[in-house]
Amino acid sequence: MSLCRFYPAPSDRMAIIWSLMPVKNAVVLEYGPAGTTHFGGGLYSSFGIELGRTLYTTHISEDDVIMGDVSRLENAIREVDAAYNPEIIFVVASAVIAVIGTDIAGVCRYMQEEVNARLISFEEGGFRGDYTYGLKSVYRMLAKEVVQPTDEKEKVFNILGASLGAWRMRSDVWEIQQLMKEAFGWDCHFVMGMECNVEDIETAGKAAVNLVIRNEALQAAEIIKDKCGTPYVYGAPYGYKGTLEWLKQIAQVIGQEINPALVKRLEEKIRRLMPMGGPMAMGLTREKPKAYLQADYDTLLGFKQAMTELDIDVAGMICSHSLKSIEVADRQIKHYPKEKDRINLFKSVKNRWCLGSEEMERYCGEDNCFTLISAPFVSRSQTATHLPFMGEKGMDYLVELKSGLNRKINI
Amino acid sequence: MGLNGNEMISKMKRLSQVSNMKQVKPLSYALFPGYHCPLMGAMLTIKEIDNSVMVVIGPDECAYYTKMATSGGNMRANGCEIVSVVLDQHDVTFGCQEKMDEAFEELMEEYNPQAVYLVTTCVVEVIGDDIDAMARGYSRQYGLPVIVVHAENFKTDDHLPGIEHTMDASIDIMEKQEITDTVNVLGLRLGDFTKSEAYRFISESGTAVAMMLPGKSSAQQIKTAPQAKCNIVVHPVGLPLAKEMEEKFGTPYVVFERYSDSDRIYDCYKQLFEKLEKPMPQEIDELYAAAKEKTASAQQALRGKTYISGNTALCNYEFHLFLADKLGMTPLLLQISDLDADSDEFRAQLLKKRDPYITRAANIGAMQYLYPILKPDFNMGAGNSVEMRRNGIATVRMMGAYNTLGFEVSDLVVRAFIMAEKELQMMKNGGIHR
Question: Global pTM?
Answer without folding.
Answer: 0.92
